[in-house]
Amino acid sequence: MMTAKLNEVPLLVVGAGVMGVGIAQVAAQAGHTVMLYDAREGAASEAKTQLAKSLDALVTKGKLTAQGVTQTLSRIEAIASLDAAAAARLVVEAVVEQLDVKRRLFTQLEAIVAADCVLASNTSSISITAIANGLQHPGRLVGMHFFNPVPLMKLIEVVSGLQTDPAVAAAIFDLSKVWGKVPVHARSTPGFIVNRIARPFYAETLALLQEQAATPAMLDACLRGAGFRMGACELMDLIGHDTNFSVTSAVYEANFYDKRFAPSRVQRELVDGGLLGRKSGRGFYDYAVASVKAANTAFEPTPLPAAQALCVWGVGPVAERLATALAQAGRAFVRDENSDWVGLAVDGAQLRLTDGRPASQLGAEVAVFDLPLSKGVGIALAWAPSSRASDGWCAAAAAWLQALGFSPQRMADAPALVLARTVAMLINEAADAVQQGVCTPQGADAAMKLGVNYPSGPFEWLAQWDARTVVRWLDALDAHYRGERYRVSPWLRQRAWQEGVQ
Ligand code: NAD
Predict the structure, then answer these.
(1) Angle between helices 232-239 and 216-225 (to 10 degrees)
(2) Is residue 89 part of a domain?
(3) Which of 61, 154, 224, 406 has an alpha carbon 20 to 30 Å from 27's alpha carbon atom?
(4) Is 161 touching ligand 1 by the criterion CB < 6 Å?
(5) Cα distances (Å, whole numbers) of residue 303 to 17, 379, 408, 438
(6) Do the Cβ atoms of 395 and 365 come closer than 8 Å?
(7) Taking the mean position of all CA atoms in its chain, how far away is CA 145?
(8) What is the pLDDT of residues 203-213, one digit of tens each?
(9) pLDDT 10s digits, 218-272
(10) Is 195 one of the catalytic residues?
(11) What is the pLDDT of residue 502?
């Protein structure tokens, strides 16, 4: 098979929908001549006209030059029949997400294009191995998974099926870089990298909603506080609950109904009720009302509350943050760095960084607070008191968190609160993906940051909080809920053992 270089080869894009047009644009901007074909008559030329309008708008805004746009458009030709595509050396398919349609299309294409023409599919969920089944040259079929909007999103998952020729995957990888993208190799497994690792971001929020532990606005505020661009509820409202639910269901089914991937009744109910999110006017939030925002977390700094005896327990960044705040306020305190918990003791009552266990399991005058993932001042942070805590300690715990620079969000006493559980599960899923050869740790980090704009990659978080801590959170979740959902990835447990835990 050829594939040495695909840099300037003539390209055929099949499917002139949202993705196909974006792919045609990016390829033409990189200098390829592009044939654009769609099964619906007239769709390809309509799409080109539409593209011309949106590129002209970018010229008006000063983001593109008129000359550049003319050149780009001159390279794109809408074709009315696939027979006109014999000269293509690379095909990128972006038609409807149906296995039989894609298979039929590639079979048809094999009769038209040369034997060394690379065939790429932009499928977001169908197995590349399955699409290749039945082709004369299955080795030339590869996944080239773009993200929407194509011209803006940097990530491309280069997906190899069982029969994909490594040279073909390498050629698409190199071409993606020439197109200004960041390619990441992935093995064809359900959800590839991004759609697989991202599942817990939604699932943990949905689980907390199902058990009535917090409101959508609170959960969104906490996730935003950690640096996610959007909370899970507002993001699901934007994606559309029908779409999100069907991706979740597809990943669940493809994993033979592994309970870890089980969809949520909360989301199912929204779908059944037609509350699909922004596009239907209502999902978790009602878009008919003037402003839809995460919980009000306007932050007002307050002085540290009065106390007789203060002790900062444990080591690490949170203990340091507490000690620094007390020292800056001129408060006397002792430190105990040998403790097995991190937090602040206030006259014997405990304000503890979550170790995964609920506060009620730890004692009476205890409150647990969530992992402060960002150093920002005034960020929303979940916390929960023990069910046996006095009203006095509940009020004092919130006041301490506020004085320490957080916007405290009181939730029910659920294990690992919001961020610790979400991050732990993202890391856990990424660890499984690496163990199963889906991607490398670096690939997972790049994919999650560029494909879904996470503030850090899962392995970057792992480096920050170490595997022992993450395993402790997961084991606490597993002990609390039982079942398959929170089982620790073997890769992660091995990593924790390497760090010295039995
Ligand atoms: P779309 O519905 O906007 O466009 C699909 C186009 O394909 C339509 O114009 C349709 O007429 C055409 N088509 C259908 N069958 C055809 C055939 N046999 N031959 C030629 N044209 C045919 O869909 P989209 O959102 O652009 O998605 C296309 C593909 O990209 C799907 O596989 C989807 O899973 C994948 N994808 C979508 C997104 C996204 O966010 N929309 C992101 C990544 C990947």
Answers:
(1) 110
(2) yes
(3) 61
(4) no
(5) 57, 17, 15, 50
(6) no
(7) 15
(8) 999 999 999 99
(9) 999 999 999 999 999 999 999 999 999 998 999 999 999 999 999 999 999 999 9
(10) yes
(11) 46
- The DSSP result for 427-491, as a single string, is HHHHHHHHHTTS--HHHHHHHHHHHS--SS-HHHHHHHH-HHHHHHHHHHHHHHH-SSTTPPPHH
Among 228, 258, 280, residue at a domain's last position:
280
Q: Is residue 5 part of a domain?
A: no
The CATH number that applies at residue 142 is 3.40.50.720
Look up residue 30 and give its DSSP letter: T
Instruction: List Cβ neighbours of 211 (8 Å cut-off, separation of 6 or more).
Output: 412, 414
Q: What is the CATH number of the domain that holds 202?
A: 1.10.1040.50
Q: Which domain holds residue 494?
A: 419-498
| Residue type (1 letter), 320 | E
Question: Going along 38-106, which residue ranges are E strands?
Answer: 76-79, 90-93
Pairing type for strands 310-313 and 343-346 reads antiparallel
According to DSSP H, which parts of 75-211 are helical?
99-110, 128-132, 166-178, 194-197, 199-210
Catalytic residue among 176, 195, 407, 456: 195
Active site residue 484: no
pLDDT digits (tens, 9 = 90+) for 20-67: 999 999 999 999 999 999 999 999 999 999 999 999 999 999 999 999
Tell whether 2 is covered by a domain: no
Tell whether 437 and 404 lie within a shared domain: no
Q: Give me the number of domains the chain comprises.
A: 4
Asked whether residue 292 carries a pLDDT value surpassing 60, the answer given is no
What pLDDT does 7 receive? Answer: 86
124 lines ligand 1 (CB under 6 A): yes
| Neighbouring C-alpha atoms within 13 Å toward the C-beta of 500 | 1
Residue 22 — φ and ψ, nearest 5°?
A: -60, -40
Question: What is the C-alpha separation between 122 and 131, in angstroms, rounded?
Answer: 11
Q: Is 240 in the pocket of ligand 1 (CB under 6 A)?
A: no
One domain for residues 439 and 395: no
pLDDT for the residue numbered 336: 95
Same domain assignment for residues 42 and 163 = yes
Asked, for residue 349, whether it belongs to a domain, the answer is: yes
Ligand 1 centre distance from Cα of residue 252 (Å): 23
Provide the pairing of β-strand 366-369 with 379-385: antiparallel
Distance, CA 495 to ligand 1 centroid (Å)?
A: 41
Residue in this structure with the two tokens 């695909």, named with its chain if needed: 6
Position 356 scores a pLDDT of: 98
